[in-house]
Design a protein that fits this description.
alpha+beta; 6-stranded antiparallel β-sheet; 2 helices; 20% helix
Length: 91
Amino acid sequence: MTRLEDPVAARLATLPRGYCEGMFEGRRWGVTVKGSDDGRRWWIWGEELGGPDRISGNLYVLDGGRALLKPCEMPEAKVRAFVLGYEPEGA
């Protein structure tokens, strides 16, 4: 497996696949993470439970472990901060 140089790509690889709930910045979230079998494509969607906030993005692992993050209609910094700070239940 390719060593993931990007901290967001490395973090996505450790998050539970499928739906789980957890915390980000003191708020509860429901998050779905999907990844391709080869670990080169990731998708994340999250909704603040009981609140209006959302998070969505796709990440592509390029040759050499570099990553390309493509947020969906929101700033890249928002998606990066969420992925790095989100704590799923039972972690």
